[in-house]
């Protein structure tokens, strides 16, 4: 039983770290200073017609459930439960889940997290840890999927910018080049430009379609590309050359980022070791001498010390992550 409790403690600690990291990444991308400046610039440059808002709402509106009754309920609860932000995460992760399906998975796993510990006879703290891990699991999967997809899109963006530049020099229009990118380049970037091209064919203006693209793919490099296109549409200029410069800038940034990751590998490994060492030691001691370590969760003072140590360790891991994470 002590070994099971220790395993739950290790998994919950890792889940909390990943959940806090994912929430911080999402908040920085959506509400950071750079994101606010770029979004404000895009809003100022958008050309909204008299009926534009209604058309964009039709294009952007996603169903949160296949059942009308549940859809209406979720729409009422949306402003209070931030379901629109959850739907944005699902959209940016590229998964086929709806908001109702994700919430249903949370409820099912939460029920399992309540019933399974009771059937296994875990103590109250162990049951609480199991419930927290079960509820955190869907969020961990979603945030990891979103991060991996955005990383792939960021790596494909220079190739897309070069493709735009070559096609524009050959005399193609920007909308036609979007269709060519959707047909020629691999996923997931092809699917995003395909969606933007279909919106333009539907009747949405170019600026609004690019706005929607920036909403689905919250990458700073893509927003720079969109700003270059909007500036060219308003004031003119050599768009092919501008896209070529942006492509070279993105490639140089990605190259420098890879070098920084290599140089900071030792620091990241040290952070992992320092963060996991207390949990590993506690787990091994629970296997070799459970009577010695069991005081931590049987005595009230031991439980308080565990909560205090967990909070301090979490703060230390987040601080080490901030030290070794260099934004370029």
UniProtKB/TrEMBL annotation:
Domain of life: Bacteria
Native species: Duganella phyllosphaerae
Designated name of the protein: Bacterial type II secretion system protein F domain protein
TM segment ranges: 6-27, 99-119, 125-143, 271-289, 301-320
Annotated membrane topology: Multi-pass membrane protein
A Pfam family it matches: T2SSF
UniProt subcellular location: Cell membrane
Type II secretion system protein GspF domain segment(s): 162-285
Cellular component terms (Gene Ontology): plasma membrane
Keywords: Cell membrane, Membrane, Transmembrane, Transmembrane helix
Keyword Iron-sulfur assigned: no
């Amino acid at each position: 039983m002590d070994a099971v409790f220790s395993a739950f403690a290790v998994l919950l600690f890792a889940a909390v770290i990943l959940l806090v990291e994912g929430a911080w990444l999402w908040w920085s991308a959506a509400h950071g200073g750079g994101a606010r400046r770029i979004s404000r610039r895009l809003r100022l440059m958008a050309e909204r017609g008299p009926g534009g808002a209604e058309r964009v709402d039709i294009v952007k509106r996603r169903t949160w459930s296949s059942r009308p009754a549940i859809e209406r309920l979720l729409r009422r609860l949306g402003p209070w439960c931030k379901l629109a932000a959850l739907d944005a995460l699902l959209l940016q992760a590229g998964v086929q889940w709806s908001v109702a399906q994700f919430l249903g998975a949370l409820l099912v796993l939460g029920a399992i997290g309540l019933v399974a510990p009771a059937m296994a006879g875990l103590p109250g703290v162990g049951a609480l840890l199991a419930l927290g891990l079960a509820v955190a699991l869907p969020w961990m999967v979603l945030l990891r999927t979103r991060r991996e997809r955005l990383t792939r899109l960021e790596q494909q963006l220079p190739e897309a910018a070069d493709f735009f530049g070559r096609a524009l020099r050959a005399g193609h229009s920007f909308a036609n080049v979007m269709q060519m990118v959707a047909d020629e380049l691999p996923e997931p970037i092809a699917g995003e430009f395909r969606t933007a091209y279909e919106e333009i064919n539907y009747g949405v203006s170019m600026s609004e379609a690019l706005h929607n693209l920036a909403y689905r793919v919250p990458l700073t490099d893509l927003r720079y590309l969109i700003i270059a296109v909007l500036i060219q549409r308003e004031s003119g200029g050599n768009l092919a050359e501008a896209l070529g410069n942006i492509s070279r800038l993105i490639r140089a940034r990605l190259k420098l980022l890879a070098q920084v990751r290599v140089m900071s590998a030792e620091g990241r490994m040290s952070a992992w070791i320092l963060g996991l060492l207390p949990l590993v030691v506690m787990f091994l001691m629970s296997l070799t001498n459970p009577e010695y370590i069991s005081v931590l969760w049987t005595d009230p003072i031991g439980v308080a010390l565990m909560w205090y140590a967990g909070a301090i360790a979490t703060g230390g891991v987040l601080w080490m992550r901030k030290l070794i994470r260099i934004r370029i």
